[in-house]
Amino acid sequence: MCAVAGGIDRIFGFNIGRKTLPPPDDTLIDQMKVFCPLCGHSGFAWPVKKTKMSPTWRQAYKQAETGIM
Fold first, then answer.
1. pTM, full prediction
2. Count of structural domains within the chain
């Protein structure tokens, strides 16, 4: 799993991040199914020259700021 997944977990309030280091055979597929579609970096070529934020993320940040999920 990548570092961005931790932010997605926190902002969207999923709370599905592993609480301890996973064993080597943990594929993290369950997390990838949730986090990867929300990433915004998946499928983009680097370096990203312009900040992009989807309506989904705008709403998520707004809800996180107000504490209403």
1. 0.59
2. 1
